[in-house]
Design a protein that fits this description.
8-stranded parallel beta sheet; single chain
Amino acid sequence: MDSHQHFWRVARGDYGWMGEHVAPLLRDFMPDDLAPLLRRTGIARTILIQAAETEAETDFLLEIAARTGFVAGVVGWLDMESDAFPERLAHYRKNPLFVGLRPMLQDHADDRFILRPRVLDNLRRVAESGLAFDILAFPRHLPHVAEALARVPSLRAVVDHLAKPPVATGDLDPWRADIAALAVFPTVSCKVSGLVTEARAEWSLADLAPYIDHVATCFGEDRLLFGSDWPVATLAATYGEVAHAARALLGTRFGPAAMTKIFGGNATRVYGLPDDGLARSG
C-alpha cells in the first residue's frame, strides 16, 4: 500500500501552495495517471491525502475515492478552529472512506497552532472518533507537536515525510532528538515519504539513509508506513524510484514479514481499513 498520494484538478483553484516554483505540478493529476505506476510497482491500494485547505477539497477526494477501486481511504481537511468542527467531523465520519484528517500545520504562520485551546479541544474529538491525524510539519514544529501529544496521548497520529528533515544539507540535529521524542508516544507512526524533495537535486540512496535509519530505530517495523508523496515527488524522482529507494533502504533493516507491514499492514491498521488486502471494485 501507498499511504500517501495526492490528486488535484488545478482549475478548482484552492491550492494555495501552488505556483511557478513548482511549475511541473501545475497540471491535473488524476487516477488514470497513477494507475499504471501502481501496477508497475506492485502496489494495490493507496491513501489519498488532501492538498487544499477547504472542505470542497475533502468532498472532491471522497468523490474520487468512491469511483476509484485502488483508493482505500481519504485523509481530508476540516477547519480545526471552527465552532462547527464537531458537527463537520460527525458528518464526514459517516463516510467509511473518510479515514483521517490533516490541517497542514506547516502552512500556518503560528508555529504553535496545534497548541491553541480550540485546536486541542478538537484534537481530543479526533482522538475519540478513532480517526487518524496526519501531521504535516517541519522540524521546527516538532516540540509543539510533542506537547500536543502529551495533552492528547490517545491521538492516533502519523508524521508525514519524517517531518521534512534537511536532507539536502545532511544535518540531523535537532531533528534527530525531536523525532525520537514523538516516537515515545505509542500511538504515533511515521511515513517514510517525501524525502526526495528535501534532498539535493542529484540525490543518492546514501543521502536518504541516515534519516530512514533513524526512524527505523525509533518507530520499528510496526509504526512505519511507506508513502510515495506522488505527484509532488515527481519534482525529484519517478514513482518507481521512490518505491525502490524505500524498499532498498528499509530492506537493509527489516525482513519480508516486516516489509509487508510497512508496505501495507501498518497503514491498514492506522487508518482503520478493512483487512482484506484487496482493492475495491470500480
